[in-house]
Each structure stands twice: as C-alpha cells, then as structure tokens.
Amino acid sequence: MLIPKHIAIIMDGNGRWAKKRGLPRLYGHHAGMKSVREVVRAASDTGIRVLTLYAFSTENWNRPKSEIKGLFNLLKLFIKKELGSLHKNNVKVIIIGRISELPINIVKLVKKATEKTSKNTGMILNIALNYGGRQEIVDAVNEIITEGIYKKVDEKIFEKYLYTTDLPFPDLIIRTSGESRISNFLLWQSAYSEFYTTKTLWPDFKKKNLMEAISDYQKRNRRFGGL
Ligand code: FPP
Q1: Which residue from 8, 44, 192, 213 puts its CA 20 to 30 A from 167's CA?
Q2: How far is it, in rounded angstroms, from Cα 57 to Cα 55?
Q3: Which domains, and CATH codes, for the chain?
Q4: Does 89 qualify as catalytic in the annotation?
C-alpha cells in the first residue's frame, strides 16, 4: 500500500480539550505534547519520510503572553526530554519559520537539536515554529531580490527559496478538532495535498488515529489535475 512520503499536521484543539475538563489551556498543550511524542514515533516506525508539525504560527503571537511562554516552555521540555531518543532512532530534526525572531534560548536549543541530528538518515521531523505560509513566500521573494541573480523566475527556481527546499511536498495534511481551514500553513506546498480532517482533539490523537488517516489517504485517487 502507498505510504505518504510527507505528512503535515495542524495540531488543533488543545485549548478545547482542557476546557472540556475544566483545566487551564496549558494543560491541553501539555497533553498535546504527549500526542506529539506518540505520533512522531508511530510515523517513524511506519516509514514516513517527513513529518511536519505546526507548533507555533506567526499569528500565535496574538495569544496571551503567559500562553506563549507556556508553549515555548513545552517545546524546550520536549527537546530536552526527547532529543536523545530521536537521535537514537535516526530522526533528523529540522525547523521552518522565522527562527531569528524567537527567544534566544529557544534559538539555541533548536540549533542544538538540528545540529546533533543533522547527519541522521531516518525520518525528518520538521517543526514549523513562528511559521506562516504567506511570510514564507514573501521571505523567498525578498531573498531572490537581494541575491539579484534572476530577472525572471519559474516555479522550480522559486521553490528553492522556500523554507522547505529539498523536502517533498506534503502528500497528506491532517487537521484535528473538526476545523477545515489551512490557517496559513504550507500555502505553496499544499497545492495538491490530500486533506484529512477529524473531530478528534489533538491531545486525543494517537497512533491509531494516524493509522486511520493513512488508510483514508490510501483510498484516494490523486490526479494532480490530470485524468
Ligand atoms: C492548537 O490548539 C495548538 C497549538 C497552537 C500549539 C501546538 C503545540 C503543542 C502540541 C505543544 C508542543 C509542541 C511540540 C512540537 C513539542 P489550540 O490552542 O488552538 O486549541 P483550541 O483551538 O481548542 O483553543
């Protein structure tokens, strides 16, 4: 059966998961981190080549300061706790987004994770951090202008300037919690991606749910605009 090479996930519903239990939103994010751990392992075991996770969008800065701080703390905790086992499992960690705008301790920590795992040949775990699809396109345009090599570009040249250079486009994009929006995620790259939405909230999304999404994908007939 056809295994998607690249799965990208919009992990949504942490806040609602917590609210349903009368807990503060950060508990939901903490529970969401456990799903991240399980889904990363499952994806790697299944032979997925690239797993992209939307961890923090450029619009997430509009959240209360305390929640932003809590999210960054969770990311730190995740890297500190998981880096060893990710490395042991041959996972290569990469980051997409406007990294330089992040707090310096986060920049250092993600650099450590990407450097330590840079030679690994297993699954690529691509974390979208301070990521926005429109910003990515604008950044690419500005880089092309700054370089000043091209008078005219085509799609192939343009794609080299996206954060995702060298990555295949996502075959499957999963969004949890019943929402069906792209929310500024991989705008260029998702042109022909298959979408899978589920009502399951992210903290409840586990290996079994990932397998369901993959088997739904396997029933699709991808035509890329052809017949
Ligand atoms: C959306 O739920 C989730 C996020 C904005 C952040 C996702 C972060 C994690 C799962 C934590 C750790 C991440 C990594 C990569 C270790 P929401 O807050 O929008 O939920 P709501 O729509 O129910 O309010």
Answers
A1: 213
A2: 7
A3: 6-132+169-218 (3.40.1180.10)
A4: no
